[in-house]
Amino acid sequence: MCQPVTRSLAGLGAALVMLAAPQKGGGGLLVGVYSKLFLIQPDGTQDLLADRANGGVLSTDGRHVAFTIVTLTTQSLVVLSLEDRTRRELLTLPQGSYFHHVGWAPDGKALAYEVIVRGKSDELVLAPFPPERGPPRSLGPWYQGFSISPDGSQIVHAVYDRATGAGLEVLDVATGKRTLVHKTEKALWDARFSPDGRFIAYTITLHEPSPSDEPDCTPPTLGLRVYSVAMHTDIPVTMLGAPPDWEDVKNFAWSPDSKRLAVTLGTTDCDYPGNASGIFVTTLDLKAQVRASTSPLSFEPAFSPDGAAVAFVDFSESPAKLLRYELATAQLTLIRRATERDNYYHLFGWR
What we know:
Layout: E1 15-16, E2 29-33, E3 36-40, E4 46-50, E5 54-58, E6 64-70, E7 75-81, E8 87-93, E9 97-104, E10 110-117, E11 121-128, E12 137-141, E13 147-148, E14 154-161, E15 165-172, E16 178-184, E17 188-193, E18 199-207, E19 221-228, E20 234-237, E21 248-254, E22 260-266, E23 277-283, E24 289-291, E25 298-303, E26 309-314, E27 321-326, E28 332-338, E29 346-350
Antiparallel strand pairs: 1-28, 2-3, 2-29, 3-4, 5-6, 6-7, 7-8, 9-10, 10-11, 11-12, 13-14, 14-15, 15-16, 17-18, 18-19, 19-20, 21-22, 22-23, 23-24, 25-26, 26-27, 27-28
């Protein structure tokens, strides 16, 4: 099976404010520009958090940001306090190991991280924060990232095994018990609890690239489905207004009230973000849908903390833009524009 190109960490800036977006919605957007990490406010002002960072994730309360630092020989996990800007290095991995995924527990009192030792193992670890609260705890072998339930009691991930097949596996944090709650015939790639814990959205392989005698980098085309935790059923998420060749789901985000999803949908390509993609917002029943982006190359949506707006990256022209779409008015405004030198935005989240 051909594994898709990593879509959520496609590339990590000083920029010039072109048009200030309305400040309604508050909170800051965590944005990467190559190796730099910024907190950008809805009015376009920005604050450099780290000039050497790989990825980044905001705690739910917006008080801390965790990120990794990569050198030629090691990788380190660092937490930065956004209140007093103190930095704590929590863990440094030896050469041959790397962090695949890092996430906060909903209460901000623990960090979970997936550690891969090349060619040997893939392990999920839950570490109390601050670290004085106790030692890290291994949750055992892992696969394909993770998402923690709103109450912190469960962790879900996509699994694939040649013998048992693919599906959604949920781990009970207290007991360590694992349950395959939903089985699928095709491989899954990304699974995330809704903020209310009632649903799990996940991407699934729709179809593989056509067989070829020549080397082919084309990944599988991915679709999006939503699984109901209570009903044990799931439905496909389709965008009726999308161009016919836009079949591939590159990334998605839950709204804070769990009633909507923002989705990047585009063409299937070897590289990220690919040749064409757009941002769509849909209710879970698929009855109300809107295309938030107007350009042929937009990606990485994030809902505002109040759920009234969606921010995303527009890379249809140079330099890249960080845009905001108001759901109530359909107004599209520019938050900030990159420079020619630092011409990329990677949106990690909005708190």
